Amino acid sequence: MADENLDYFEFLSIGLKGQIKKVVQFSKLNEDGFYNLAFGDYNEVTNQIDDKVVTNNGDSLIILRTVASTVFAFTDKYPNAIIFATGSTEIRTRLYRMGLSNNLDEITIDFEVYGVLENGNVEPFIIGEDYFGFIVKRKKLK
């Protein structure tokens, strides 16, 4: 389920521990078109995204694909958006890096992909490089 702005998405993780509500939210960081991608479990008590909880529901590949589909939907509506994402822990950042690395050929058909180093420098994504975060930008349609 997405809101009309396509900057907030809810979906269910269905796996070993049952159904768990997940949320992806794109938040504008500045007027230059940078957005932060926040992702995690929906906390019913706080009504917020919990990006620290470890679900281990057995469907992580499906979850990552679903998050990727929200990036497609968001950049369909906002083609000039520049999306920043990082994990809430080093382990999660490594998981995201592995997901990008394993699917880079497919991803780079539609997106420019950059790695953000600890010092803040940005470079084209290199498989095997250790990054603090990631930036993706939709390629211009030809």
Q: Describe the sheet with the most strands.
A: 8 strands, mixed
- Return residue spans where pLDDT drops below 50 for at least 5 consecutive residues: none
The ordered string of helix (H) and strand (E) elements is EEEEHEHHEEE
Helix percentage: 10-25%
- Coarse structural class: alpha+beta
- General form: globular
Helical segment count: 3
Distance separating the two termini: 30 Å
What's the structural domain tally?
1
Provide the gyration radius in Å.
Answer: 15 Å
Architecture blueprint of SSEs:
Layout: E1 8-15, E2 18-28, E3 34-43, E4 48-50, H1 60-77, E5 82-85, H2 90-102, H3 104-107, E6 111-116, E7 122-124, E8 133-138
Parallel strand pairs: 3-5
Antiparallel strand pairs: 1-2, 2-3, 3-4, 5-8, 6-7, 6-8
Structure description:
Helices cover 25% and strands 36% of the residues. It has one domain (8-138). It has three helices and eight strands. Strands 1, 2, 3, 4, 5, 6, 7 and 8 form an eight-stranded mixed sheet that branches.
Summarize, please.
The protein has 142 residues and is α+β, with helices and mostly antiparallel strands. Helix content is 25%, strand content 36%.
Which features would summarize this protein structure in a list?
142 residues, 25% helix, alpha+beta, eight-stranded mixed β-sheet, 8 strands, 36% strand, 3 helices
